[in-house]
Amino acid sequence: MLKKWLKRFTLTRNKHVMSQSRAEELVVAIYRKLLLRDPDPDGFSHFSKALRTGAMTIEKVIDVTLVSAIARYASPIRFEVP
Predict the structure, then answer these.
(1) How much is the average pLDDT of 20-26?
(2) Is residue 12 scored above 50 in pLDDT?
(3) Contact assessment for residue 31 and residue 45, using Cβ atoms and an 8 Å cutoff
(4) Are residues 47 and 56 in contact, defined by beta-carbon separation less than 8 angstroms?
(5) CB atoms closer than 10 angstroms to residue 60
(6) Which of 6, 27, 66, 69 is the most buried (most CB within 10 A)?
C-alpha cells in the first residue's frame, strides 16, 4: 500500500532532485500519512530541502521521520525496586 502511495511522487529525469513544490507536498503528505499531523516548521524545512537537493531519498525521509517519532513518543520501561 505504501509503495502504491509513493508512486504518486515518482520523479522525472533526475531521480535525486525534485522541485520545491513537489518536495514540500511530499513532506506534508509523509507527516500526515505516517504521523497523523502537519509537519513542524523545522522538520518541514529540513526534509523539503533534503529532498529538493537530493541529500535524502523519499525512503530515507520516511525512515528518519518514523524513527524520530518512535524515539519521541516511546517511553522506556522502568522498574522500581521496593
Answers:
(1) 92
(2) no
(3) no
(4) yes
(5) 13
(6) 27
Burial class (CB in 10 A: 0-12, 13-18, 19+), 48: buried
Q: Is 24 helix (H, G, I), strand (E, B) or coil?
A: helix
In the block, residue with C-alpha cell 497523523: 36
Q: pLDDT digit string (tens) for 34-53? A: 888 999 999 999 999 999 99
Euclidean distance between CA atoms 59 and 70, whole angstroms: 17
CA contacts within 13 A on the Cβ side of 55? 9
- Mean pLDDT along residues 1-7: 60
pLDDT band at 66 (very low <50, low <70, confident <90, very high): confident
Cell numbers at 46, concatenated: 529540513
